[in-house]
Amino acid sequence: MRTCSLSVPFAVGFLALLYSANVTAAPQATAAATRPARPAPPARDPNTPGYVPAKELPDGAVPQPDMDGNFIVGPTHRRAPEMAVQEDVPHGTVFNLTMKSADSKIYPGIAREPGTSGAVDPADPSKLMVSSHPAPYTRKVAVYVPKQYVPGTAAPFIVGADGPDKSLFAALDNLIAHRRVPVMIAISIGNGGGDAQGSERGLEYDTMSGLYAEFVEKEILPLVESQCKVQLTRDPDGRATMGCSSGGSCALIMAWYHPELYHRVLAYSGTFVNQQWPSNPETPHGAWELHEHLIPGSPAKPLRIWMEVGDRDLLNPNVMRDNMHDWVMANENTAKALAASVLVQPELENECSRLMHSSHRTVRF
Asked: If pLDDT is split at 50, 70 and 90, which confidence band does 35 have?
């Protein structure tokens, strides 16, 4: 799966994040020149029977912040003006930190063997065999501290994957200035490198456990507080996770395994698919297990979740052919599992972001 930056027009979707709502979405687009031409949108009809029922809006229209429900939006809606840098608002300070793998007790670093690709396990088509080795990394951590932050006060914050994300910081400048979100800090964390099975990024984002949330709690947040001279809230209602692709999967996994730490989740085109490596017998199908077993079989969790998927997300099949790698189906199935449960309660709907040349579904509860 490709690494997605969250530098997309999600600002209005961010509107009531720490009050009662969830946020918007980042597009997934791939298409190498050698691949066959994709069909005209929608590639997969968002009104397919079995999908979560949703209201289809006219092309160019997006849900207003006070609208509740699930929505299908078209490809041409306007970029949120809050995403643009505005000179007439206070600008926060961005601290650029680095963290070396040698300083981490949780993630000392791995990488897939160079020049190799995964092979399907002949004994189990749901497993991909890869070779990896220890490898050092240096990750970037960008921390946005708003101009309005009062030193010594505990601030709400959002943790974002695949950082740094400058657009997030610009949006917060504007939204905080207009009192549409609280005075909040953003911690945009770079991954440890590579992608998918056998990589450090894949290990961090696709593993079905609380380890990444624990890494952030024990190694990232103390660094942020000490280096940036801020105090971060311990209240899970004031803490959010956000990510795109495997980062979106990571955002939900963080809160799923540690709801005492995070109550807010924003998943952009989340790869809720079978991509965990190494395999875990407790969750053999990776993040596909979320809708398959975990959500239906779990007691209520106090989570507020905003999800998005575009109808073209990972249109091409995966080499594993295990029927657990379709991003659209993974998101739709996860949405159905959440809708059938009492994990989360209805929240205010927010604006969707633009998805080029494709229709675009927002799923929220």
From this structure: low
The string of pLDDT tens digits covering residues 293-339 is: 999 999 889 999 989 998 888 777 788 889 999 999 999 999 889 88
**Dihedral angle computed from the Cα positions of residues 67, 68, 72 and 77, in that order, rounded to the nearest 10 degrees:** 20
The length of the chain, given as a count of residues: 365
Instruction: Give the residues across from 185 on adjacent strands.
Output: 157
Cis link prior to 122 (omega < 30° from 0)?
Answer: no
Whichever domain contains 278, its CATH number is 3.40.50.1820
Residue ranges in the chain assigned as alpha helix (H): 166-177, 200-206, 211-215, 221-228, 246-257, 289, 327-339
Which residue, among 310, 309, 307, has the nearest Cα to 358 in the 3D structure? 310
From CA 225, how far away is CA 232, in angstroms rounded?
7
Residues 3-25 as b or e (16 or more Cβ within 10 Å = b): bbbbbbbbbbbbbbbbeebbbbb
Domains identified in the chain, total number: 1
Residues sharing a CB contact under 8 Å with residue 251, sequence separation 6 or more, in sequence order = 161, 241, 242, 243, 265, 266, 267, 270
Would strands 55-56 and 71-73 be described as parallel, antiparallel, or unpaired?
parallel
The amino acid occupying position 307 is M
359 occurs within a structural domain:
yes
Q: How far apart are CA 363 and CA 365, in angstroms?
A: 7
CB atoms within 10 A of CB 67: 14
Domain that holds residue 360: 12-364
Query: By C-alpha distance, which of 352, 354, 356, 355 is closest to 364?
Result: 352
The model's pTM = 0.85
Kindly give, in sequence order, each residue whose CB lies less than 8 Å from that of residue 61, ignoring residues fewer than 6 positions away. Answer: 73, 74, 77
Q: Is residue 17 part of a domain?
A: yes
Compute how many other C-beta atoms are within 10 angstroms of the C-beta atom of residue 68: 13
List, in sequence order, every residue forming a beta bridge with 121; answer none if it has no partner. 124
Judge whether 268 lies within some domain: yes
Closest CA to 324 of 293, 355, 299, 301: 293
235 in a structural domain: yes
